[in-house]
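Exercise 7. Predict the joint structure of the components listed below.
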Amino acid sequence: MTILTIATTLLTIGIFIYACTLLTSYMVIGIASIGGSREYMYKNEFTDFRLLASSPHAPSVSILAPAYNEGATIIENVRSLLSLYYSNLEVVVINDGSKDDCLQKLIDGYDLEKIDFHVQYKIATKEVRGVYRSRKAVYKRLVVVDKVNGGKADALNVGINVSSNDYIVCIDVDCILEQDSLLKMMKPFLEETGKKVIASGGVVRIANSCEIKDGRLEKIRLPENYWARMQSLEYIRAFIIGRMAWARINGLLLISGAFGAFDKQIAIEAGGYNHKTVGEDMELVVRMRRYMEEQRRPYRVTYIPDPLCWTEAPESTKILGRQRNRWTRGTIETLKMHSPLFLNPRYGVMGMLSYPFWFFFEMLAPLIEFFGMVVFTILSIMGLINWHAFLALLAFIISFGYLFSAFAAYMEVATFNMYRRRTDMMKLLLTALTEPFVFHPFVVWAAIKGYVDIIRKKNSWGEMTRQGFGPTAQKK
Amino acid sequence: MTGQQEIQNFISPERLYAAAAFFSIITLAVVAMIYIRLYIKKKTHFGHARITEQLNEWISEALLEETTVNITMQPWLMQYFAKEVHRRYVTDSLINAKKNLKGAASNSIVDLYLKLGLKKDSLNRMRSLVWHKKARGIYELYMMGQQDMAAEIERHTNSWFEGVRAEAQTATVGFKGFAGLEFLSILTQPLNEWQQLKLLEQLHKLNVEEMPGLPGWLASPNLQVQIFALKIADIYNQFHVHDQVAELLCADNEALRTQAIKTLGRIGNEETAGIMRDQYRQETQGNKKLILRQLGMVGSDLDRNFLMERMNEEDDGLKLEAMRAMAQCDAEGWDELLSLANDNTVLNSISKQVLYELEQ
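Solution:
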């Protein structure tokens, strides 16, 4: 047996095992999500969430909304946050050294005055220049912090330091939250018995093409733009199936930075957000979990499948590519920082299942796929491809992908059914048909660029241009 | 045969094509299910709309005339009523209507519920072995004020199923008021905070009554019953259990001590501040802050030295709480503290914040 034969045999066996494990994981995840969703629906079928809206015994919550150059829409965004149903609420807007008129607009719009406030740097951050509160009683929930620019993670850490409540809900300031989102988000924290709930994630949906008025979602529509529509399907798959299943076995590693709730004390004890990574949202969850495991304290990270937060998805390949590049870098950085977790039984489900899954099927997948594409190109040029076998394998993989997408669409209809028109569902399913040929290769390419940037030690966020929800909004 | 050959045989193109065909067939089936589901949802939606029209007529009639509504079921409605999903919808609609009504109007809704034969459905659900159906049945019977079922419902207050016992507890307190809390004496299952909050909100609407079981609940082997009892003692100012609450400061569980500190702040007497000061050093950082906060309520000039000592703490959060407490309970001590703060940048900054808070 030659070395080449041994190498190709090992490679074949390796890829075969990899593919089998991946497909099996998806099937298990799909099945687990059915149980998780059903349990959630039954449990909350006739829950009166309004109870929390008015109860003085409801846990206190601080919303942390970092803002950087959001002057164009900041007034409307903050108004939307202030109108959320929740009695024990504080809205902390952190102006992260914006270069535009964001702070001045807030001062004028909400009649703010600089107050005497002793900032406790429980987590080390860039300097806070001032804390503002409104002179008007109607805006008493609002706290605005002005600080030296330090990035999103640093801004969120300032928010943690300044906030006065027991729980923090970290959001992107330009997201649209459902009016009852906090009520639903806080319930899991109150349902803990033996295990402390340290964090809870919510579903993020795509708001492109939806009708939005005064910071509220008026009408839900499937995005008209192909890339945004494709992301709608991707988000349904990730949130309704993936995260639901991981949360069910208490293995969730990622809570979206756009909308996540945390126990503030645990977040502080774990050290707050890490500003050395662009994947600060995932890194915080992993670190909080690691902290709890090392302290031998029983805990849970929960997840709410209700569509509570709506965000604008990139509509151009340029911006989408930057986003996926950043996500890849964030994943690599986080997994690298927490490498001792890998297959370490001391860290339970996180060490034995979640981390290895992320490592092999989220972090390595683009590399393996790219490698496969390169090898395929070389072999086809050399005329070494067995086309009969190749087409069979392609048909197998693509048909499995379609099945998974169709299942996700079915779960969407069976649970929250946001896209009620039959034509919307048809569009969504037809879009899914193009995924293996258009969207997926693009995402793999963007991820490979992320790898390249990691090697080149590039750690910027990348400019994220947004259209905005209003007719005139155009911000960066 | 090499491993590579074995794999190649295992995943032969024929097998892959067969698997792809299998996946495609399932995909088509799933797509068909999507459309069937959408169709059913649409049909149900229109059915509900028609039912709502009729239901609104009956409700208006019942409310306006305050008499027994004469129900005549037209054939189309009878068709709808043959299906459980539609009857459940009617029950939900009546519950929602009843939530917004009181007195005779509310009774009219219950009358409608009984006349439509929906109680039988609720009973069947309550007697189902499936937990979520059972929970729903209890919920419906309680919301429709079916007092005759109280005893049967009460039997589920310690159910192994969280959803079932939560609804049973809510219903029992709803039916019997404060006396309904007796289930706490036998509760061995967890009573989570959400359920505690629900019960407190229910009790909030009632006139306060004697709670002879309170000392027993405070000594319950069920940790969450103890915490709930502490909350009740706090909200309803149960001064007579002060000593028992003070004893709970020595409990091993932090959450229990936290609630005990909060409760002592509300039902405190002249000894409370001293008890809390003694406890301070053994406490976690969070509970230390809480003790200082409570001292603002139950403290006096006797706590001045203790609060002054807190200015040497490393944690600025403790200094802040101590200053707030001093400002609240000891005017002379507060002046002393302000002069001390003049020579210390950190204390000065904290005192300015407290002064701002006092102005608000």
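Discussion. The longest strand of chain A covers residues 299-311.
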